[in-house]
Amino acid sequence: MEHLHSTEAAVRALRATAREHEREIEVTHEIGADRTSRRTAAGFGVTTDPDGSLPHEAFVEFGGSPRLSVRLYPDDDALIEVEGVECPDIPRDSVPAFVRSVLGGLAYVKGRRFPPGYWLVVPLPGDETYKELIPMISLTPWLNARVR
What we know:
By secondary structure, this protein is an alpha+beta fold. It has three helices and eight strands.
C-alpha cells in the first residue's frame, strides 16, 4: 500500500480511483483548526494546531451505486460510509484500497442465522479485512445483492 502523507494525497488517490471506475466525485475541503470536525477545542479565530500547521479535512462523495462517501481526518484516519454502513477508523493509507474493493465488487455481506446478523466485509490486499455490523433493517438493494 502506498503511504499517503497528507489529506490532499489521499484526495488525489481517490480522484484516480474514481476515474478508474468511471465515477463522478465531489470533494469538500475544510482547512484550519476552527473548521475541522475533530478540533472542537480550538478557540474562536484559532486556525492552526499548536505546532503551527493547518489541519486539513476533506469529505469525498462518489456518484452512482453504491452510495459511498469518505471523510478524511487530519489525524491520518477516515470514516467511510457504504450504503449507510459506517466504517470508522480506517487508516488513511488503506482508504484507496478500501474504495477500490467496494467499487470493484470485492466487498460482500456475510449473514448469520443465529444469532441473526449481517456484516459488511471489505477485503484489502495483504490479507487485511474490515468488517462492520449492519443493522438488519438497513439492508439496501445493493447490500442485499451481495449477501453470501
